[in-house]
Amino acid sequence: MSNFIGRYKKDWEELESLIRRGRKSVRRLTPEQRERLDVLYRRTTVHLARVSTLTQDQALITYLNGLTASAHSLLYLAPRGNIWGNAVHFVSEGFPRAIARQGRAHALSALLLLGGAMIGYLAASSDPLTMHALWPAGDTRQPGSTAEQLTAHLRAGREEGGGFKFFFASFLFQHNLKVALLAMATGVLASVPTVFLMILNGMLLGVFVAIHHQVGIQAELWAWLLPHGITEIGAIMLCGGVGLMLGQAVVHPGRQSRRAALLHAGRESIQICLGVAGMLFAAAIIESYVRQSHWSTNQRLLFAAATALFWAVYIAHGARREYLAGRALAGVTTDSADATR
Length: 341
Prior knowledge:
Layout: H1 2-24, H2 31-54, H3 58-76, H4 83-101, H5 103-126, H6 128-134, H7 147-154, H8 162-185, H9 192-213, H10 219-251, H11 258-289, H12 297-328, H13 332-340
Helix pairs in contact: 1-2, 1-3, 2-3, 2-13, 4-11, 4-12, 5-6, 5-9, 5-10, 8-9, 8-10, 8-11, 9-10, 10-11, 10-12
């Protein structure tokens, strides 16, 4: 272990120096220094993982844990001195990279929700009794409603003023945020509630689509649903991914202790939670002002396509930035292993 410490002590000292400089003001760090801070932070997390499994030196473990926590706060949390600049950095890089780092969990969450939607749609389409059983009895858009009744619901609210739409947007944001936080927080219960919520919400979506399709309402339904739904459903999928990630930390923490795994997952969760809140706010605005507008069906579908393209490019950008950061660390794990042999 003494060889390991001697080999990487300079990296830790350099990281400590960058942290001290960044604490005074992140603006003092040049773009090259920020990139170096990112590389050293990731390298030190690898060192921390190895030290935690190969030694009982609590002083060294505490020191490395403090370094990584401090570097993480500079890289991903907003410093008090430059709120707007750090917010821009979070939106442009921090959030999409956090999504990319947990891509498998988010992909599984999407699979659960879309799979539930397919099950709900097929079950409701094949059996009217199943459709009634799955759909909430208090909803006015009940199975068996006529095309005229359902169309009236789709077009409702277009004549309302801006004040009502703003109030409606606030209500939608609060409601959707509660659902999102529930899906994330219950992940600590081995992800069981999260899986249930993803499948259930997907099934409700599938039944909703089936209710309209059975009376021939298709294009107008998707023009009503997709403009806000792409952002809103995407946010719900990310919440499910966070819940699965927290559940993974509880059930299978790997070489880390369960507490350490949960702390790491919690840091990632905070970033995604902040980004999801922004997505749900945007979805609420779109739902109130675009869905309730007099736009034509084609205009709505075009807006939805532009929204889908934006999120695809945004997430791909985060994946690319995360990949480039990973390449900068190529060979670190191998070198660390060699140094401890």
